[in-house]
Design goal:
The protein is built from 3 helices and 3 strands, in the order αββαβα. The protein is of the alpha+beta class and about 100 residues long. The protein has a 3-stranded antiparallel sheet, covered by helices on one side. Keywords: Metal-binding, Zinc, Zinc-finger. GO terms for molecular function: zinc ion binding.
Length: about 100
């Protein structure tokens, strides 16, 4: 098994002096290099049932996990979410 040396030789990065702001905007479709993500762009569902804390990209995936690992169909209680639509069960309780 080979090990990396304690000191590795680094190389200086080269500065891009030929690409213009217009070329970047044309390639990205924006006026800059990137943009800030919003909850609508990146929904996250965290299963908090029995201190599970697994993360899922959709409520459907969370529910499949709950059926398989927790033996329940409930996809709305004990869920921490940053989803745009929120939790309908919590919204009903607030009304």
């Amino acid at each position: 098994m080979s090990m990396l040396p304690e000191n590795t030789r680094g190389e200086l990065g080269l500065k891009d002096v030929t690409t213009t702001k217009e070329e970047i905007a044309a390639a990205t479709g924006t006026n800059g290099v990137g943009r800030k993500a919003t909850p609508q762009d990146t929904p996250i569902f965290v299963c908090e049932l029995n201190a599970c804390y697994r993360l899922f990209p959709s409520r459907a995936r969370l529910q499949a996990h709950r059926v398989r690992d927790h033996n329940t169909q409930d996809a709305y209680s004990s869920v921490l979410t940053y989803e745009a639509d929120g939790n309908p069960a919590q919204e009903q309780m607030q009304e």
